[in-house]
Amino acid sequence: MNLESLALWLGQGFLHDQMVDKFWMFPMMETFHFIGLSFMFGALLVIDGRVLGIGKFISMKEAMKFIPVAIVAFAVNLISGFAFLTSDPGTYLYNIGFQWKIGLIVIAGFNALWFWFGEHKQLTQLADGQEAPFTAKIIALGSIVLWVLVIILGRMIPYTDF
Amino acid sequence: MDLLLWYENGLVGTFIRESIWGYPIVLSSHAVGMATVLGIALMLCMRVLGFARGITVTAFDKLFTVGWIGFAINLISGIILFAGSASLYFFQWTFQLKIGAILVGGILLKVVMNAVRANKSESTQKLLAAACMLCWLVGVITGRLMAYITA
Hints:
By secondary structure, chain A is an all-alpha fold.
């Protein structure tokens, strides 16, 4: 399936019609998207901040409880983001800001998997105040940098439509 | 009004309206700062509301520094963005409510921390945290709606 037929397919159906016809749908989805990103980034700041040693005395095991918070918030943003996409797929799919944003989200996803399968178990054994291993710190820093870039690129989408 | 127009027509206002990348860059910083300050505020409120009880609230202290950095980014970027249409924004109820909500939310954050440190009853702490969370959420919602409700 090429971009063109994907755009055609996304641009039809119930969600597209709602996004286009109801004037309040877009602002409402945007509001959800911003609330979702705040919860998600906040949860990541707790987890990654602990790993990086900013909040060293945050219990690592307890900080991991924020993982589901991040996942639920991400789901909210996936749904609201998908709604934006259906509203005007022909524009989004060809937008360079959008393309980079999606690419970085995929990379951030792999980074998260690396954290979960590579470091998570070991990290939960950390005592309060104890330094996290170097690899975990790299992953945590990567996560923050990647998601900051995702936020920036998302905000840039209206301006990267060449 | 004179002051608003002076600011709007001055250097900052002209820059934000006329430079091609100025507006998107400042706008993006505003989103990153928002995610940071709001993220920390929301997570602290969640903790006081009873989530992840094993984290001592005082351990959150260091994260507040991060929250303050986010706040500084947004204060600066917000002042710059405001110059874009100061004379319009100032009279929008969405803007007025946004600023009010952020002020109250910021003060409440301090009040919540004080209540925790002073060992106030759990229901008092939770009530304050819920109010604080609500203020910050109103801040985001009205901020977003500023683009749509220009009355």
